[in-house]
Design brief:
With 233 residues, this protein is of the alpha/beta class. Helix content is 46%, strand content 15%. The protein has eight helices and nine strands. Helix 1 runs parallel beside helix 2, helix 1 packs across helix 4 and helix 7 runs parallel beside helix 8.
Length: 233
């Protein structure tokens, strides 16, 4: 769980995850949050050995935070490593379902919590935000020729083996395009992907990190990857 100014969300989010999934561990990757998120995470970790904290010294972005968390999980020997938002948008009960799908299907390498398949939904999103999200996933799906409907989803469960098969340190993608890059890399490595419907709930505390530059970065990189794919045919 990467964090930046999520201090007020830490305790309720972790409590909810553990109430539904007591077997998991959580690593908080904090980008030196000015609101003291890192200190709150340290306090929670002192009282629960399932909570771990990685402190980074600057706001370096979502992609690098996930990569650092992946490396930590692989070094610790976890079999499954997940991505999940700290703001409460991703529900703990959906994590339970995603892990169950991964455990029941040994051939699956990545489970994506999807808003864009039957049964998936967004709650309290504006029509404009929904349209931008749908268009972005549609564009990435068709440019990269991948059978994934929610390309930008940040709620995921990876088998450790597929993460080891990917050059994580070669990834140069921040923001939500990181999720698209990971999807195409899993597919290129021969990984099998399954989407599971989830309900994505708009945060009620704190501020969204979505900016125009994140959208622009995603469009530019997806376009470049798509052109390379078409030129390589």
């Amino acid at each position: 769980m990467p964090t930046y100014n999520e201090g007020e969300n830490l305790s309720p989010t972790l409590a909810h995850v553990f109430s539904k999934n007591p077997q998991v561990s959580i690593v908080v990757v904090d980008d030196d949050s000015p609101d003291g998120t890192g200190r709150v995470a340290d306090f929670l970790a002192q009282g629960d050995d399932r909570v771990h904290v990685i402190h980074r010294h600057a706001k370096e972005g979502l992609g690098p935070a996930y990569i650092e968390g992946f490396h930590w999980g692989l070094e610790q020997g976890y079999d499954v490593i997940c991505e999940m938002d700290m703001d409460g948008s991703h529900r703990a009960e959906d994590l339970t379902r995603m892990l169950a799908v991964l455990n029941r299907n040994p051939s699956i390498d990545l489970v994506i919590g999807s808003r864009r398949i039957e049964g998936g939904q967004t709650i309290n999103w504006s029509p404009t935000r929904n349209a931008i999200s749908r268009l972005g996933s549609w564009y990435a799906r068709h440019m990269l020729a991948l059978p994934v409907h929610d390309m930008t989803a940040g709620f995921r469960a990876y088998k450790a083996e597929i993460l080891r098969a990917i050059d994580l340190d070669g990834i140069n993608a921040n923001g939500y395009v990181f999720q698209i890059d990971m999807t195409r890399r899993v597919a290129a490595a021969g990984g099998r992907i399954r989407e599971v419907p989830i309900a994505f709930v708009e945060r009620t505390r704190g501020k969204s990190k979505m900016t125009q530059s994140i959208v622009v970065e995603a469009m530019l990189k997806v376009t470049l990857w798509g052109i390379r794919r078409l030129c390589s045919k």
